Write the structure tokens for this entry.
Amino acid sequence: MLRLIALFRWSKALVLIGAAFGAMRLLHPGAAQRVAQWAMQLPIVGQHRFLLAAVAKLTRLDTTKVEWIVAALFAYAALFIVEGFGLWLQKRWGEWLTIVATTSFIPFEAYELWRRATAVRGAMLVANVAIVIYLVWRIRRYGGGKKHGTRHAYAAHSSSSSSESPLSSVTSPGRERTRRASSSTSHRSPTTR
């Protein structure tokens, strides 16, 4: 499941990178006006107020705003790429990064959905909430700190056929020494105690 989420993150990064390169084309002199002229020739643009407003905004963008938009798109894409690698490699930091980043954007997505509901916005909000819920469940289920990586805990849980805890085979060195010491003292005969 982590790899599926990673692929989803990488696909979002590709869309953002494509949008950033598209926005960079607007930095060329007269590009926004050419796009506006082309768009105005489409019959659908004249029939819809929001498309006319979008074309008008496009022609009024100054280069500084476009540069900031491009930088934000690349930064957001970089975040998705890093999240994807962390999840693909089944790293705990990747799960936490995805939880924090995704949770921080959910209120904005909910606001945008409330402002103008579309099926795509609704689906993206549901998908992001489901991803956060799954990752929180996964971290709580397979728990652990530095020594209890997700991959190791999951592998221990998957291969364990006994009634032991999924984390029982993944212990820190101090716990292992304590376990060995307590088991060796419990096996002594009563006469040696």
Remarks:
- The chain is about 75% helix and 0% strand.
- The CA atoms of residues 113 and 120 lie 9 Å apart.
